[in-house]
Design a protein that fits this description.
Number of helices: 14
Largest sheet: 5 strands, parallel
Shape: globular
Structural class: alpha/beta
Mean pLDDT: 81
Oligomer: single chain
Distance between the termini: 72 Å
Low-confidence stretches: 1-6, 284-290, 447-515
Strand order of the largest sheet: 3-2-1-7-16
């Protein structure tokens, strides 16, 4: 190593092959600390990945394989922090489909082996047996910062209005560290894979919170409470109102029905805006993913047996009271009031766009997804199985070097598949590495009805991705049917596997499905 190389703290200063001698710091930081003069504001800055979930860590794995400097910023206290919050639920897909190819290539030399390919992992297992080991491989170790919440993305020295010389400046990521320190990090490129968990859709109609919703926050739970475990005391012997028509709602309803068998006084009401719940009941025995088919079948049986009170055509108008609360809604027959101790808001999610106000993103006004992606994922016409493969060219924004990936790239559309996210970041990283042909060669061989949600959208859409879209079932306490989540499937599945009823996709099928 030359004197200059040692000075710069990297193995090959000022070349395309340079890497920091200390893997715990970026090449730019190593050279800055060494006082070297060959620091280029853009070329020497790392690629910053926001979010250390499956898609964010897959991006890191691809960046590591291509020798690109990178840094992963995770707001939670550990990788996969959002998944940990629903760690008690299982995916619809077994381990054989739940990992990224580049991630596996980095993991295998460490002695890691894929768990039983046919086993349906819980969210906690996905974190403990895949994401945590991945974050610790030598290529990623020291490059993943937890407790680091991104506050904003911009261009250094330029707000969103400035055009002249914009692309000559590095992107800037403002982050609040775990100790409260706020710092700015220059970035060559930014991949925002922060997901949508924690930013739920409101209970009210027309996209707005219901009057009184904020005041009733203490009586509203998230979409996947641990009814049979951590949150049992909140529901046992009490009245629960579940609002929403996605798999999150189904999982919670079935867990509540199981709780009611041993906890007298537990009462369950399920309110949906539409007149039909046929899409959530799904294909039953016709579903090629047995865990998913069983979910709809068991839910139908619980409703028909009277263990769950289903209220159709219910639109939340206002929420009043301070325990219990009264939820008043409009119905075709006039107003109706429902009383509950806890409301489970299984209403889906939307992206946090406030942090992106100073970068030039081009989003579809309806879905809040990148404009070229939006027609491919429009929930009015698509389920996750009908979304075509897509990569960097579809995800690029007017802001050079900035990308949305994973759940957040789908905006409000609940049609996301984890497999799609893995292919997104593979393509993005290939483009950043200058491999245009590889970036454009996108592949995702998924059958139309194969590995997607039987409930791609609802009037109050529930997300259908793994982040947070493990629209999954509570982990069974006994030898019940395995619980799972459809859109955790990250790899192609042979044609014929999955939900194959031939139903119309998206909201366009609602009119034909008013029979259940």
């Amino acid at each position: 190593m030359s004197t200059q190389d040692r000075c710069c703290g990297v193995n090959a200063c000022c070349t395309d092959a340079e890497h920091p001698v200390d893997p715990a710091v970026t090449a730019r930081q190593a050279k800055t600390d060494a006082g070297c003069g060959c620091v280029d504001d853009r070329a020497d800055a790392p690629v910053v990945v926001i979010g250390a979930g499956p898609v964010g860590l897959a991006a890191a794995a691809h960046l590591a394989e291509r020798g690109l400097d990178f840094l992963v910023l995770e707001a939670g206290g550990e990788v996969g922090a959002a998944i940990r919050e629903w760690g008690h639920v299982r995916l619809f897909s077994p381990w054989r489909y739940d990992t990224d190819a580049a991630a596996r290539r980095l993991l295998e030399p460490t002695g890691w082996t894929l768990p039983d390919p046919g086993h349906l992992p819980t969210g906690a297992e996905l974190v403990d047996r895949y994401l945590l080991p991945l974050s610790r491989v030598p290529e990623l170790d020291g490059r993943v910062r937890t407790g680091a919440r991104v506050l904003a993305v911009t261009r250094r020295g330029a707000d969103a209005t400035r055009t002249i010389g914009r692309d000559e400046r590095p992107l800037l990521v403002r982050v609040r560290e775990a100790d409260g320190t706020v710092r700015d990090i220059d970035a060559r490129a930014v991949i925002d894979a922060s997901g949508t968990w924690g930013n739920r859709n409101p209970l009210g109609h027309s996209g707005l919170p219901a009057p009184g919703e904020a005041e009733a926050a203490a009586h509203i739970s998230g979409p996947l409470p641990d009814v049979l475990g951590r949150d049992r005391d909140r529901f046992a012997g009490r009245r629960a109102l579940v609002v929403g028509m996605g798999h999150s709602a189904a999982n919670t309803l079935l867990a509540l029905a199981e709780l009611a068998e041993t906890e007298p006084g537990t009462r369950i009401t399920w309110a949906v805006r539409g007149d039909s719940v046929a899409r959530l009941y799904g294909g039953g025995d016709a579903d090629g993913l047995p865990a998913r088919g069983a979910l709809g079948t068991r839910l139908r049986e619980a409703v028909e047996a009277g263990r769950i009170d289903l209220v159709r055509g219910f639109t939340v108008a206002r929420i009043e009271g301070d325990g219990p609360v009264t939820v008043t809604g409009t119905t075709p027959d006039g107003e109706r009031a429902l009383t509950a101790d806890t409301i489970v808001a299984a209403t889906g999610f939307r992206p946090d766009l406030d942090m992106l106000r100073e970068v030039r993103v081009e989003l579809d006004p309806a879905t809040e997804a990148p404009v070229r992606l939006a027609p491919m994922i429009d929930p009015n016409f698509h389920s996750c199985g009908t979304v075509p493969p897509h990569g960097e060219s579809v995800l690029a924004h007017p802001e050079t070097g900035f990308y949305l990936a994973g759940t957040k790239s789908y905006g409000r559309a609940p049609t996301f598949l984890m497999a799609t996210g893995y292919e997104q970041v593979r393509s993005i990283v290939a483009a950043l590495a200058g491999e245009r042909e590889a970036a454009d060669a996108v592949h995702l061989d998924l059958p139309e009805t194969g590995v997607c949600s039987t409930d791609p959208v609802t009037a109050a859409p529930a997300t259908a991705d793994l982040l947070p879209g493990a629209q999954a079932e509570p982990a069974p306490r006994a030898a019940a049917e395995p619980a799972s989540s459809c859109c955790g499937t990250p790899e192609p599945v042979p044609a014929g596997v999955g939900f194959a009823t031939g139903l119309a996709h998206g909201r366009s099928g609602d009119a034909e499905r008013a029979d259940a």
